[in-house]
Specification:
Rv0078-like_C, DNA-binding, mainly alpha, Homeodomain-like_sf, HTH-type_TetR-like_transc_reg, TetR/AcrR family transcriptional regulator
């Protein structure tokens, strides 16, 4: 009995996440109706409250889901790099470029911070920071990066990529802002590279 209830709860959660993701992408957080969203999932508001607490909790879950996908896409871009330095740059570039994806732009980079607060405090961002910290530690140990405080460098690099993506997403001309952000990020990172 408990197993079936857990399966139902998980199925409802999955349906609500999918409906919310579609609604938030199309209408934005403020414009997404909870009644329409739950109806699209074939569920009631009670299921939403049970699974996520409220609309804000549902947005947090959608943001975490998309942010996880963004991290996977960034890691995939880094995986094809020839070394850790190029991987660091490729991962950041891929993350910044995702600001052009309409779903990422609206849900994660515009509505997410407006509703959920500072993205650097989101659990999903902390996972990205940990990966950047590991890469920076390897680069410093290998002598590829200057002898710099690993934590400080990782936070600055990660924060720069996040803020570049936020800037591109909020820009009136994202296609114009993107190459500027990518160039500036690469130049900034280059300043940490050992000569």
């Amino acid at each position: 009995m408990a197993g079936r209830r857990a399966e139902t709860t998980e199925a409802n959660r999955t349906r609500l996440l999918a409906a919310a993701r579609a609604a938030f992408a199309e209408h934005g957080y403020a414009g997404a109706s909870m009644d329409e969203l739950t109806a699209a999932a074939g569920l009631t508001r009670g299921a939403l409250y049970h699974g996520f607490g409220d609309k804000r909790g549902l947005l947090a879950a959608v943001v975490a889901q998309i942010d996880g996908e963004m991290a996977a896409r960034a890691r995939a871009a880094a995986a094809s790099a020839r070394d850790d330095w190029d991987a660091l740059l490729a991962e950041a570039a891929a993350y910044i470029e995702m600001a052009l994806d309409p779903e990422v732009r609206r849900i994660v980079l515009l509505d997410g911070p407006a509703v959920l607060g500072d993205p650097s405090r989101w659990p999903s961002q902390n996972a990205c920071l940990a990966e950047t910290r590991d890469t920076v530690a390897r680069l410093v140990a290998a002598g590829t990066m200057r002898a710099v405080d690993v934590e400080a460098a990782a936070r600055l690099l990660s924060g720069a990529a996040l803020n570049a993506a936020l800037w591109v997403a909020a820009s009136e001309a994202p296609d114009v802002a993107l190459p500027r952000a990518l160039d500036a990020y690469a130049l900034m990172a280059e300043g940490l590279r050992a000569r």
